[in-house]
Amino acid sequence: MCRLLNPHVNNPFRDPHDSVCAFTGPLPPKLIDVTGPGSRSERKERTRQALLDGTLELLDDRSFVSVSLREVTRAVGIVPTAFYRHFDSMEHLGVNLVEMSTRALRQILREARRNTNPTIRDFLSIIAREVREHEREFRFITQERYGGVAEIRRAIATELRLFSRELAAELARIPAMRDWEYDDIEWVADLGVTAIIAIVDDLLRADPRNPAEERAAISRGTNQLRVIALGVAQWKLKG
Predict the structure, then answer these.
(1) Can you spell out the DSSP letters for 65-126?
(2) Per-residue pLDDT for 12 more than 90?
(3) Whole-angstrom Cα distance, residue 75 to residue 104?
(4) By the 8 A CB rule, do 22 and 2 touch?
(5) Who wins on pLDDT, 176 or 82?
(6) What are the counts of helices (DSSP H) followed by strands (DSSP E) for the chain?
(7) How far apart are CA 120 and CA 218, in angstroms?
(8) What local confidence, expressed as pLDDT, does residue 174 receive?
(9) Which CATH number fits domain 2-85: 3.40.50.300, 1.10.10.60, 3.40.30.10, 3.20.20.150?
(10) Could you tell me which of 225, 222, 205, 223 has the C-alpha nearest to residue 213?
């Protein structure tokens, strides 16, 4: 249970710039985070991150369009009006969630880049590891890609196009593709991104309590990427 803090009371848990709720019991972990020590900018950044993280938690079994601003601020422990010091609207928060979540997607390429010559199986292992470590972020991308909020759909589409360009740049470094037209490399990258998102969705559906389901998803993903690689190679030979 919480009540709005009196701004005239010298309460150690009150951020002077973000009104918070006073809890009669132990403080929620996120409230402790946002009201901890530090400068005003540090506290503001902690609150902003807590709003993003708290929203992702609320989306574990729901869509973004079903989550209200009041639910988000309640989860963090601030009053609804304080939300607008960090985001213009729920849609603005959603777009920022897209930016945060797609960092996990880009991490796949960074991890693959560290491996001198990764096989398709190695690449699938990297995807599986990143999905396990950032499950909520990946779930948000796959769930809201065709969700009910237009701003979020557009932001995801934009980020996936950027991811495809990064993948195209990586493919262009492969000796077998160095003489390809860049337009051809780009459409191969688009095909790869579509497959990666499908593989991520498959991994998210696997029961974490049953390792066999994850292994099966990795096996299916490996076969999908192999078919794409073989098909592209044959297409180029015939072209």
Answers:
(1) GG--HHHHHHHHTB-GGGGGGT-SSHHHHHHHHHHHHHHHHHHHHHHHHHSSS--HHHHHHH
(2) no
(3) 24
(4) yes
(5) 82
(6) 9, 2
(7) 10
(8) 87
(9) 1.10.10.60
(10) 205
Owner of token pair 């369009």: 65
Mean pLDDT of 48-71: 96
CB atoms near residue 113 (< 10 Å): 11
pLDDT digits 0-9 by tens, 73-111? 999 999 999 999 999 999 999 999 999 999 999 999 999
Q: Which two tokens stand for residue 159?
A: 């980020």
45 pLDDT above the threshold of 80:
yes
108-98-165 Cα angle (round to 5): 50
CATH architecture of 94-238: Orthogonal Bundle (1.10)
Token pair recorded at residue 172: 């262009």
pLDDT band at 117, cuts 50/70/90? confident
Boundaries of every domain in the chain: 2-85, 94-238
Q: What are phi and psi for residue 23, nearest 5 degrees?
A: -100, 140
State the amino acid at position 2 in one-letter form. Answer: C
Report which secondary-structure segment, H or E, holds 4: strand 2-4
Q: How far apart are CA 195 and CA 120, in angstroms?
A: 12
